[in-house]
Design goal:
Radius of gyration: 20 Å
Largest sheet: 7 strands, antiparallel
Shape: elongated
Strand content: over 45%
Structural class: mainly beta
Strand order of the largest sheet: 2-1-3-4-5-8-9
Order of helices and strands: EEEEEEEEHE
Number of strands: 9
Length: 167
């Protein structure tokens, strides 16, 4: 139909976005490939593991883009994205995974402030990567201003939960 070219955009893992790459996004982004592809093949892996107060979660995707215009314009680029996320609950709480829904739910706080406790802190570390550099490196004629690039970010956080419903 009348769909435009696929656009791959990178966003930082902040309160504004989720750190992923997406096709045809209109959010504020730190890099974009512009309209470069008419189809792609994605190979992705994701997983999570929870053992008591410790958890690790991650995802990695390699996206092979079929460039619009074919070999006359340039080679087909590969976009790479991923993250790793680790948490630890010093007082024994744990992330609450709902297997039926396939998602993490709110944690059960062992000593909430509503019962005279102190609540709990969660220690978190996240590493993100987004690499769109091949979008322009594979072109025969590279534009003077390129918005594609590589992003790596590390987030260190401490979350405080006075109750299961407040963070």
């Amino acid at each position: 139909g009348a769909e435009g070219a696929f656009v791959y955009t990178g966003r930082t893992n902040t309160a504004y976005t989720n750190g992923a790459l997406s096709s045809n996004s209109t959010n504020t982004n730190f890099s974009t490939t512009g309209g470069i592809g008419n189809r792609d093949n994605t190979l992705a892996f994701e997983g999570a593991y929870v053992h008591g107060p410790f958890s690790v979660q991650g995802e990695y995707a390699s996206i092979e883009v079929t460039r619009m215009g074919g070999a006359a314009v340039g080679g087909d680029p590969k976009i790479k994205v991923g993250y790793a996320y680790v948490t630890f609950w010093p007082t024994g709480e744990m992330r609450n995974y709902d297997a039926m829904a396939g998602e993490f739910k709110r944690p059960k706080i062992l000593n909430p402030v509503t019962a005279g406790g102190w609540g709990v802190v969660e220690l978190a570390l996240r590493y993100d990567i987004a690499d769109t550099t091949e979008a322009y490196e594979t072109l025969k004629t590279r534009p003077a201003t390129s918005m594609a690039g590589e992003y790596k970010g590390v987030t260190l956080g401490v979350n405080y939960y006075p109750t299961s419903y407040v963070r």
